[in-house]
């Protein structure tokens, strides 16, 4: 409870004494003030100080919050602009992607149409594929038979039949085993044939034809008497002019007559025109021998080689290097055998035709 203030008369009566008295010290005045203050006033003062401090702190926090809010608003504004730019780019990308997706869908539809067309075409062709393979095999076997009959080319016929067997092997059909066995039997027949070196013989004939123009004729050979070699080897003695003249006249007189034993019938001299036709006829005879070789006509081949050898021995110098080599080559060629009995391979061809006609539908 608060104390009541003294009456005004007491204050007024006491003031003259106070004024007249000397000023009290500062310490006494403070104590008087404190003593005069009531407890409520002190509480009010403390509350006021606390309120002021809280108001200042709150005002400071509000300022900080305003600055932070302004900063964040600025960042949000910048992020918003960046997001708008990004959204614009995303929209453009989506537009481009939509265009590309449309193009891909169009290509996909076209590819599906092409695939459907190819599947239908493959289905159409798969039915006739086996018949096509059989037709090819039949054609290969026919070629093999023609090579054997026309040119007796065993190697080409063997290659054609092996290719036909490979085509049947890739088909892997049990129904074609009989045809493959027939082809294998004909292949074994061709492999057992003796090998004739037709290219080697042909090469030798070509060399002989090329050497015909260089073969020396018998009439072109210069026979030198043996006495000449003796005279050339004997040393020349010192002799006078008359002796040398008489010796040269005697040597010229001895060369006027030459006696020689040819031991064979003398051939008449050939003119240049006859020499030309002789060489050309020899070439034609060798070419005829080549035709006999390619047609495997052994009788004609040996006859032409025999005539060519006789012509070389009769009209050409068989003792020279080229002449002896030509005679030896012709003799070796005459001894070679080119006649080979070709086997019959029509069984495989007939089997292929039968399979094509009877098993065509069953193979599908």
From TrEMBL:
Annotated TM spans: 39-56
InterPro entries (UniProt xref): HemX (IPR007470)
Keywords: Membrane, Transmembrane, Transmembrane helix
Keyword Transmembrane helix among UniProt keywords: yes
Domain of life of the organism encoding this protein: Bacteria
Pfam family, one: HemX
Region (Disordered) location: 1-25
Protein name in the entry: Homolog of E. coli HemX protein
């Amino acid at each position: 409870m608060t104390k009541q203030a003294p009456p005004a008369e007491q204050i007024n009566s006491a003031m003259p004494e106070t004024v007249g008295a000397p000023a009290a010290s500062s310490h006494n005045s403070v104590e008087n003030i404190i003593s005069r203050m009531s407890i409520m006033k002190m509480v009010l003062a403390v509350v006021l100080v606390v309120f002021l401090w809280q108001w200042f702190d709150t005002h400071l926090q509000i300022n900080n919050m305003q600055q932070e809010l302004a900063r964040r608003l600025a960042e949000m504004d910048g992020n918003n602009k960046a997001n708008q730019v990004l959204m614009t780019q995303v929209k453009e990308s989506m537009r481009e992607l939509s265009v590309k997706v449309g193009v891909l869908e169009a290509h996909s539809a076209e590819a599906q149409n092409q695939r459907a067309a190819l599947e239908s075409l493959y289905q159409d062709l798969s039915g006739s594929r086996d018949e096509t393979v059989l037709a090819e095999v039949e054609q290969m076997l026919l070629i093999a038979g023609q090579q054997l009959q026309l040119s007796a080319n065993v190697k080409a016929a063997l290659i054609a039949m092996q290719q036909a067997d490979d085509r049947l092997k890739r088909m892997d059909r049990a129904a074609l085993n009989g045809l493959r066995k027939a082809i294998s039997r004909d292949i074994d027949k061709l492999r057992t044939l003796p090998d004739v070196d037709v290219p080697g013989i042909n090469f030798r004939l070509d060399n002989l034809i090329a050497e015909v123009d260089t073969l020396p004729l018998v009439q072109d050979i210069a026979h030198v008497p043996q006495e000449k070699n003796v005279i050339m080897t004997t040393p020349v003695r010192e002799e006078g002019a008359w002796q040398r003249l008489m010796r040269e006249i005697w040597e010229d007189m001895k060369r006027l007559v030459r006696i020689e034993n040819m031991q064979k019938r003398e051939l008449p001299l050939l003119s240049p025109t006859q020499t030309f036709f002789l060489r050309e006829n020899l070439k034609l005879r060798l070419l005829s021998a080549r035709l006999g070789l390619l047609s495997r006509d052994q009788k004609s081949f040996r006859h032409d080689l025999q005539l060519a050898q006789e012509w070389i021995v009769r009209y050409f110098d068989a003792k020279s290097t080229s002449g002896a080599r030509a005679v030896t080559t012709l003799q070796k060629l005459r001894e070679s055998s080119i006649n080979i009995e070709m086997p019959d391979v029509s069984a495989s061809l007939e089997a292929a035709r039968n399979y094509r006609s009877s098993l065509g539908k069953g193979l599908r």
